Amino acid sequence: MSHVEQGEHDATNAYQSLSETTAHDDPRWAFGTGFEDGLSLGEAEITAPVPEGVDAADLAAYCQMLGDDALIYSQQLSEWVANAPELEEEVALANTALDLLGQARVLLARAGHVEGADRDEDALAYLRDQAGFRNVALAEQSDELDFGRCIARLLIFSTWRLALLHRLLDSKDPVIAAVAGKGVKELTYHRDYAARWALRLGDGTEESHRRVQAGLDWAWPYVEELFRTSDEEHRLIEAGVAVDPAGTREEFDAVLAQVLDRATLTRPEVPPVGTIGGRSGRQGVHTERLGHVLAEMQSVAREHPGATW
Amino acid sequence: MTATDERSHPAFEDEFQATIDADQRIEPRDWMPEAYRKTLIRQIAQHAHSEIIGMQPEGNWIGRAPSLRRKAILLAKVQDEAGHGMYLYAAAETLGVDREELTEKLIESKQKYSSIFNYPTLTYADVGVIGWLVDGAAICNQVPLCRCSYGPYARAMVRICKEESFHQRQGYELLLAMVNGTPAQKAMVQESVDRWWWPSLMMFGPADGDSPNTQQSMAWNIKRHTNDELRQRFVDMTVPQAEALGVTLPDPDLRWNDERQAHDFGEPDWSEFKAVISGAGPTNAQRIAHRRRAHESGAWVREAARVYADKQAAKKREVTA
């Protein structure tokens, strides 16, 4: 009996001690959400020097590309919270959104540091306008709570990003290499999750087959952009910091072919979304969707300029 | 007389009561009175539904969280709630009901969830106040459930309480940051506390005189304290925390009573409570419609998973045949 009371007493004590605890001395406050426990990547590494021979502006831009893809995808994926078809899917999709958000935070913090203009992860996430974002169009699309779209888009995105991160494990930038190290494990899970559902939906019922195929047809026009190489990337490939996205196409095609075949799905034959004067997401030229995404994401932060949260 | 009632042999009944009296656990395979089973199913289902419905008011702010750290904390918290729902539905399943059946009852409004989630989240401060007051009240209610007589429920609660207390700290930490921030942030916290204080007190249920199920639940060691005892404990814990935050709790009758060594406080508006639990709160219809939409629009996905699993099983049988 005494140990039972002790148990309750302890829990109550932890609760009562709340008002004595301050925000800054207790690392448990941010458990699972900070850099330290998230990536075992301390502040010191975010501030690592720019590798020799690398243009700082190019590196900042590249970290933004990789970071914005993750941030905006995470934002759009979190539309599924409280809307998923089953509780297991709630947990899995929220977890995927959290993984990507974690990657985004480190990459944006790195971008801000390298840029040297005193912008932190939040300044980059909340105070840039549309044209300042460098994510690909696929990341900013909404699944509109259609699980067929969700799986098709996630399969494409995670297959591509996993191929990129694999090749970034040896990046000369220590922060990018560290993000890749953790990200490969995360993206392996995301891709596996999407592929398993592609099989279930593709080879499930007539309706599920139709809907996941429609999801693929919807997402496919955004695929070509994933393999376009920007000027910054071209320069950073030389320096051993970036990888050429064009070089991941073969792996992407092989993985998709394998999954689609087993899932009895057809690779869509649809024209890609066009560019404007050769410019698209990497150059800050987006689809109409991004304005709405940012309007939501940035609303509270911009209502309270200078506030800390 | 049903078959179950015929099984209510006095010897089983005695053994059951002896287990309860010795403060030991009843496990799924043990004999238990039908009324005990029904009470537990009702309570665990209500608790599971609360976790799932509770994802909506907080999920409302994930897309707008004002810093990436806050976004990660909120996303992780809402994900935990889905996880809690899963453990609790699994605990209910040990009593012979399944998740699908319980979800149907929820969306047909045949089972309840915590009245608190029938209030809207109107500002980002609400995310912090839900953590501090709502999760705080939930912890007061739930810590004693870790000693509940039904084993699977008690074990689920141990895990849930750990995570809840963590969520409560995070909520409080958000509020601390806000009250130390701009005047607008501080005002936002006070406005939020003004809206959530009374609904939080109502989370403990009606006054003891109006709580018909309490005595039986206490006799079965499902419940350990009365509603009013828990409410008092919550108020006594919360007052110093409010002082530390520099916010005012909106109750003119709230004051320390030296004789009782406890706080006196005002009476919640029980007519509002009754309206909310009978379906007429600010967001009852919205919450259920949302849950129904999510469940129904996921039907084709769940069906596809079943059909696919059947096809795979049939293929395996062909191979082994």
From TrEMBL, chain A:
It comes from the Bacteria. GO terms for biological process: phenylacetate catabolic process. InterPro entries: Aromatic_CoA_ox/epox, Ferritin-like, Ferritin-like_SF, PaaA_PaaC, PaaC. SUPFAM superfamilies: Ferritin-like (SSF47240). Transmembrane segments: none annotated. This is Phenylacetate-CoA oxygenase subunit PaaI. The gene is paaC. GO terms for cellular component: cytosol.
TrEMBL record, chain B:
InterPro entries: Aromatic_CoA_ox/epox (IPR052703), Ferritin-like (IPR012347), Ferritin-like_SF (IPR009078), PaaA (IPR011881), PaaA_PaaC (IPR007814). It comes from the Bacteria. One of its GO terms (biological process) is phenylacetate catabolic process. It holds the Pfam family PaaA_PaaC. GO terms for cellular component: cytosol. One of its GO terms (molecular function) is phenylacetyl-CoA 1,2-epoxidase activity. This is Phenylacetate-CoA oxygenase subunit PaaA. It comes from Pseudonocardia halophobica. The lineage of its organism: Bacteria, Bacillati, Actinomycetota, Actinomycetes, Pseudonocardiales.
